[in-house]
């Protein structure tokens, strides 16, 4: 492990506590999984991993550490579904590009069939190998105009947004713990400059919900999602933020800072409270596409990409510059595709289809 520029890179404690590379000998899934597209934490020590091969699977870390189960597959594209089977098979078509946990035991999944599926899950049942641990509930949400690239939900689970092409419709939960229902077309976020690739939310008690859209033209657009219809707040950072690579990943730190990663290797931080303000900090371009970003509990920013895993000191930077404290976080030097955080660890999905759990305490 190497550190640079920061004053603690060499002291970062990093332990691989589990890896899907440890599957039993002869398991063909180890070589046919395809690159990990997305990771979604389902609960303590567990996450959903979706892959380019069209498969989705449960990843569980044993509470003793060092043991993982990742051979329990999610089957949404065929077979029976809960209820009267009204969700057509085409709506369930994989790969599954996105997923978001909405409440305990429930998640939204974005499909290649241009729909969002609301699903109920039981991690304990999945860990026992039960095939029906992950099931569709309610109606499919859509159709969208293309693959559902991302989906996000508010912390209380009452509102959610999904995106495909240049549209991001809003979905409202029907009461406490109810299934999601469509809203009117006036609630849909719409862009005229490019496809929306990623979404992020900032929720502040006094200011409401801001929705950020990472766009293929290299911009980020902000909307006030509290108002009806939503208010277009313009390009984040003003015109100085244009002409970057495709904005493939975003995360919000403490509802105050917006961190974005682009296909040109740039990582940029803006003020999530005042989207029109100039950028706060930016890192030197990384040697490859950025695929995902997340904020660790201690404030470090973790970036996944073709270059592996890179950790920045924090999102504030120094004199407008993000400071790298580890350019091979966890010893990962290539092929990192997706990130997800639970209470004490980081799940990392790779181009080879493996999923690692890293202790970042």
Topology:
Layout: E1 15-19, H1 29-32, E2 36-43, E3 46-51, E4 56-61, E5 68-74, E6 96-103, E7 106-111, E8 116-121, H2 123-127, E9 134-136, E10 150-153, E11 159-163, E12 167-168, E13 170-173, E14 180-182, E15 189-190, E16 196-204, E17 208-215, E18 220-224, E19 231-235, E20 247-253, E21 257-262, E22 267-271, E23 281-282, E24 290-295, E25 301-305, E26 308-312, E27 324-326, E28 336-341, E29 345-350, E30 355-359
Antiparallel strand pairs: 1-30, 2-3, 3-4, 4-5, 6-7, 7-8, 8-9, 10-11, 11-13, 12-15, 13-14, 16-17, 17-18, 18-19, 20-21, 21-22, 22-23, 24-25, 25-26, 26-27, 28-29, 29-30
Question: How would you characterize the overall build of this protein?
Answer:
2% of the residues lie in helices and 44% in strands. With 361 residues, the protein is mostly beta strands. It has 2 helices and 30 strands. The model is unreliable at 1-18, 20-31 and 78-84 (pLDDT under 50). The strands form 8 sheets. A 4-stranded antiparallel beta sheet has the order 1-30-29-28, with no helix packed on it. A 4-stranded antiparallel beta sheet has the order 2-3-4-5. A 4-stranded antiparallel beta sheet has the order 6-7-8-9.
Which term fits the overall shape? globular
* CA gyration radius, whole angstroms: 19 Å
Task: Describe the sheet with the most strands.
Answer: 4 strands, antiparallel
Q: Could you tell me the mean pLDDT?
A: 86
Number of strands: 30
Strand content: 35-45%
Uncertain parts:
1-18, 20-31, 78-84
Strand order of the largest sheet: 1-30-29-28
**What's the end-to-end separation, in Å?**
16 Å
* Relative helix content: under 10%
Structural class determined from secondary elements: mainly beta
Count of helix runs: 2
């Amino acid at each position: 492990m190497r550190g640079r520029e920061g004053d603690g890179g060499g002291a970062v404690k990093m332990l691989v506590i589990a890896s899907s590379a440890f599957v039993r000998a002869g398991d063909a899934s180890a070589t046919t999984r395809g690159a990990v597209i997305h990771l979604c934490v389902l609960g303590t020590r567990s996450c959903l991993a979706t892959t380019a091969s069209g498969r989705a699977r449960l990843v569980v870390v044993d509470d003793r550490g060092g043991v993982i189960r990742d051979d329990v597959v999610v089957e949404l594209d065929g077979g029976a579904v809960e209820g009267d089977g009204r969700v057509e098979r085409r709506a369930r078509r994989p790969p599954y590009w996105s997923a978001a946990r909405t409440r305990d035991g429930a998640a939204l999944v974005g499909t290649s069939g241009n729909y969002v599926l609301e699903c109920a899950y039981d991690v304990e049942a999945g860990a026992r190998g039960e095939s029906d641990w992950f099931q569709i509930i309610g109606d499919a949400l859509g159709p969208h105009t293309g693959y559902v690239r991302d989906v996000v939900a508010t912390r209380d689970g009452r509102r959610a947004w999904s995106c495909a092409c240049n549209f991001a419709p809003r979905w409202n939960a029907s009461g406490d713990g109810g299934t999601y229902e469509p809203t009117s077309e006036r609630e849909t976020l719409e862009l005229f400059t490019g496809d929306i690739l990623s979404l992020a939310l900032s929720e502040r008690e006094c200011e409401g919900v801001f929705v950020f859209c990472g766009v293929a033209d290299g911009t980020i657009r902000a909307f006030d999602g509290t108002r009806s219809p939503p208010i277009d707040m313009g390009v984040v950072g003003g015109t100085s933020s244009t002409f970057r690579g495709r904005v493939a990943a975003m995360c919000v730190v403490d509802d105050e800072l917006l961190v974005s990663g682009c296909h040109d290797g740039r990582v940029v931080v803006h003020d999530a409270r005042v989207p029109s303000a100039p950028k706060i900090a930016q890192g030197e371009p990384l040697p490859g596409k950025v695929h995902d970003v997340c904020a660790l509990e201690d404030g470090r920013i973790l970036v996944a990409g073709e270059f592996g895993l890179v950790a920045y000191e924090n999102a504030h930077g120094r004199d407008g510059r993000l400071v790298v404290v580890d350019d091979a976080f966890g010893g990962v030097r290539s092929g990192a595709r997706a990130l997800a955080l639970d209470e004490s660890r980081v799940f990392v999905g790779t181009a080879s289809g493996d999923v690692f759990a890293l202790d970042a305490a």
